[in-house]
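Sequence design from tokenized structure. All designs in this work follow the same two-part layout: the structure record, then the generated sequence. An example of the structure record is given first.
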């Protein structure tokens, strides 16, 4: 895993895009409008922000120690299935995050970042499906 490239992509996106939470969820809901109803009670956006923060924590764990990301993803698939989020839809949130990062980084996004995120997303999708 190209740790430095993933870290750099997150830094660039944060510098250029600020709080990415609204953009991530707008993208998710545009691709999967049926998921918006899951957040009807999140009137302040706090749940959305916390969920995105957890994704970033999983990313940093995975590219670092790798102590819990795989298990946490699998656990969250099961938890979210209980909320009505189908297991095959759950990992698509990671795609929305990556797409939003790329958009926020704009012209500073590199081919290396694309490759690093493709690898990370493939792993996260595999963990979500196969554990």
């Amino acid at each position: 895993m190209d740790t430095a490239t993933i870290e750099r992509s997150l830094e660039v996106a944060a510098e250029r895009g600020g709080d990415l939470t609204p953009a991530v969820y707008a993208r998710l809901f545009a691709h999967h409008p049926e998921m918006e109803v899951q957040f009807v009670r999140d009137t302040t956006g706090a749940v959305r922000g916390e969920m995105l923060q957890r994704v970033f924590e999983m990313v940093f764990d995975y590219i670092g120690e790798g102590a819990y990301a795989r298990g946490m993803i699998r656990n969250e698939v099961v938890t979210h299935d209980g909320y009505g989020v189908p297991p095959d839809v759950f990992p698509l949130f990671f795609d929305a995050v990556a797409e939003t990062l790329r958009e926020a980084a704009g012209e500073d996004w590199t081919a290396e970042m694309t490759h690093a995120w493709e690898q990370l997303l493939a792993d996260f999708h595999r963990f979500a499906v196969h554990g």
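Residues 20 and 118 are 20 Å apart (CA to CA). We note this feature because it recurs in several other targets discussed in the main text.
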